[in-house]
Each structure stands twice: as C-alpha cells, then as structure tokens.
Amino acid sequence: MESNGKGTLVLGIGNVLMSDEGVGVHVVRELARHPLPAGVECLDGGTGGFVLLEPLQQADRVIIVDATADGNPLGTVARTTPKFSSDYPPTLTAHDIGMKDLLDAFYIQGGHRDVVLYAITIEFKQPISLELSPDGRTAAGEAVRMILEDLGTRDLGTRDVGTRDVGTQVGYL
Description:
By secondary structure, this protein is α/β, with parallel strands linked by helices. Helices cover 28% and strands 20% of the residues. It has five helices and six strands. It has a six-stranded mixed beta sheet.
C-alpha cells in the first residue's frame, strides 16, 4: 500500500491512567508544543489498536513512542527500527499484542515506511495515576529531545498545537 505523502507521523502509545504506561502519549503531547518541521503530525494513539492502521498507512515516515518493561534500567530510552513484532523489545506493557499485531498488519498490507520506535523502559507494575514518575518524566524529556533531533529541529520554543486524539475522533473513550 502506497502512502499519500502525508509526511511524518509521531505516534504516542499508552494508557495515561497508568502512570508511566502512558509515557508515549505524554511525549507526543509535549512534542506538539514545539515548533516542528512541515509535514510532521503528532497523534495521541492511546491504546488504540487497529484504529491506528489508517494513520500509519497515510504517513511516509512513522515514529512510535511506547513504554516497555524490557529489563533495562528504568528510564532507558532506546531507538530501534522494528520491521515485525519479533523486533519489538520483550514484554511491551498492557497493549503488547495490539501494537505488535498492528505493526505486522501494517507490513502485511504493504506498508514500507521508515518506522522508528522509541521504547522507554518502565516498571512492569504501574500505579493508577495521571502523573509520570520522576524516572518517567526524565525519560520523557530525553525522548522529546531525541525525537526533535531525529526530526531535524532543536528549537525548544512552544506552539499552540495540540495532539489529535484518535479515541475522541472515532467516538471511543
């Protein structure tokens, strides 16, 4: 499946009700406050699953930000380029199967985009909280810095742009 040339999609994945499990969403929300190059879209994917397949297919380049419980030191931010679910870090958190299945479906349907994953190491068990832990906040800041660099910008100013919430867009929540 060919993309329609919509640029770069930065997709934050996670459950913001479960503290650091929602770190991907927190990162994307912060990125959206920065001036970004033309053609970059920040998307709060929540725990969206297959509803995210269309935005993935429409982008030329995809950056996914997600939490992982991979045994690395807490707050580790790892940049990888997964091609299949087996390329993901072990034991992705609560939406483990959904994200892996989503990526496989993307490639099975002919997705041939540049896909980059920023995986942020968290504790496997997370409290119910809308706030990131201190380690989560530090890692989120590092991920924002790395992604801005990856996008070719270092301007740390803010802009009045929010993230698009797929849950709201399709009537979920």
